[in-house]
Amino acid sequence: MTTQKRKKSWDKRGEGHEGPFDAIVIGSGMGGMTTAALLAKLNKRVLVLEQHYVPGGFTHMFRRKQYTWDV
After folding, report:
1. How many structural domains are present in the chain?
2. Is residue 27 domain-resident?
3. Does residue 10 form part of some domain?
4. C-alpha of 7 from chain center
5. In this structure, are residues 32 and 10 in contact, taking their beta carbons and an 8 Å threshold?
6. Less Cβ around it within 10 Å: N or C end of the chain?
């Protein structure tokens, strides 16, 4: 799947989810996702904002040719 297709499908998931929110979490790294999950478990409406097209912050990896990096 190309980057553009991934970004487009990710953008569509957020459509129709309007506020008000009890909390807005900036960043979807380990801390942000943990915070959002704990708040959601307490029945709070949470919005997680991430600038990258893949959530996870530094908890993912990427590949270039035969090399793989954990970031």
Report:
1. 1
2. yes
3. no
4. 11
5. no
6. N
Assigned domain for 55 exists: yes
Residues in the chain: 71
Domain that holds residue 60: 20-70
> How many Cβ atoms sit within 10 Å of the Cβ of residue 25?
20
Percent of the chain with pLDDT over 90: 39
Cβ neighbors of 24 (< 8 A, separation 6 or more) are 46, 47, 49
Whether 1 maps to a domain, the answer reads no
Each residue's pLDDT tens digit, 9-41: 555 565 667 889 999 999 999 899 999 999 999
The CB-side HSE value for 1 (13 A sphere, CA atoms) comes to 10
